[in-house]
Amino acid sequence: MHPKPNHSTLSVLPKRIIIMRHGESKGNLDYSAYSTIPDHQIPLTDMGLAQAQDAGSRLRHLISTASSTDSWRVHFYVSPYARAQSTLRELGRSFTKKRVIGVREECRIREQDFGNFQVEERMKAIKRTRERFGRFFYRFPEGESAADVFDRVSSFLESLWRDIDMNRLHHDPSHDLTLIIVSHGLTSQVFLMKWFKWTVEQFERLNNLGNCEFRVMELGDGGEYSLAIHHTEEEMHEWGLDADMIADQKWRIDAHRGALNGNCPWYLDAFFDQLDDSDDNEDSVDESPSDSSSVCKL
Questions:
Q1: What residues act catalytically?
Q2: pLDDT at residue 255 tops 80
Q3: E strands within 152-213?
Q4: Beta-carbon neighbour count of residue 8 at 10 Å?
Q5: Beta strands 225-226; 72-78: pairing state
Q6: Rounded-to-integer distance, Cα 266 and Cα 268, Å
Q7: Residue 3 above 70 pLDDT?
Q8: pTM for the whole thing?
Q9: Digit-coded pLDDT (tens) for 18-77
Q10: Which of 7-21, 25-39, 167-181 has the lowest mean pLDDT?
């Protein structure tokens, strides 16, 4: 049985963590752009700029209506890529300086590295190979695999928790704090995979986020974050979450911080064919073999 979380401890945790993808970019509209423009310099389209402004309005409405107090604040983390920074700039128009307590550029949440200049026809062939090989472990020539992205996102999460624990965000506990992470499609999927301890097989079934689409992880009363507080079961199913993953999100709404969901199959059952529920047969299993059975017959 887990002790109930200390409310003073929960008060310093962000009320919600929102991970979002950038707006429509020139590369989303015309893949040939990657052959002449470095990936990190790909700009947003006019549609992407409008999407980001709309996302800012939706985010402000979500935060202001869901917060328990009018004294809510936001802190941003943003990828160094131009399309992510432009997205932040446009969505930021919906917030005042009073509401924003900080912004940090974070290289570890950048886009997956696909190599340098990308020749369109060659990349089409490479991506077909990736689909056969598997999205998570396939490493692009001169680039990264999703597994590589997982490693740097894991490092970012360690830093994020240190920022929270040491109050480097200068968060007043009387304010509802929302962290907004402006990143990229695959990086966002990997972030959620790491946070919720999803398996590689579960990752492979996830669908990409649309431009300026976001996922809201909200803090439950027990101290765990859940997607199921803000999002519906139908939404999570459309993202690629299966019934067990959705059930785990619902469990997290009331779960105590650090608790283990015993009904979550990928924590234990998925790795073993069968484990006994009790130790009733332990003695017979642990008995040493008789002398005759232990003799090696030649």
A1: 22, 111
A2: yes
A3: 176-183
A4: 8
A5: unpaired
A6: 6
A7: no
A8: 0.87
A9: 999 999 999 999 999 999 999 999 999 999 999 999 999 999 999 999 987 889 999 999
A10: 7-21
Query: Which helix (DSSP H) or strand (DSSP E) does residue 133 occupy?
Result: helix 120-133
What's the topology of domain 9-219? Rossmann fold (3.40.50)
What is the strand order of the sheet 225-226 is part of? 100-105, 72-78, 176-183, 16-21, 214-219, 225-226
Q: Is the pLDDT of residue 234 over 90?
A: yes
**Looking at residue 286, what is its pLDDT?**
55
Structure tokens at 118: 């990308």
What amino acid occupies position 125? A
Q: In the predicted model, what is the mean pLDDT of residues 138-162?
A: 96
Q: From residue 86, how far is each of 34, 80, 123, 130 by CA, in Å?
A: 18, 10, 26, 30
Please check whether residue 181 is in contact with residue 87, taking contact to mean a CB–CB distance below 8 angstroms.
no
Structural domain spans, the chain: 9-219
Residue with tokens 């040493």: 288
Q: Is 170 exposed, middle or buried (0-12, 13-18, 19+ CB in 10 A)?
A: exposed
The answer to whether 236 touches 249, Cβ cutoff 8 Å, is yes
Token readout for 264 is 């979550």
- Work out whether strand 176-183 and strand 72-78 pair parallel, antiparallel, or are unpaired: parallel
Residue with tokens 């209506």: 65
Q: Which residue has the tokens 């642990």?
A: 286
Q: How far apart are CA 81 and CA 111, in angstroms?
A: 8
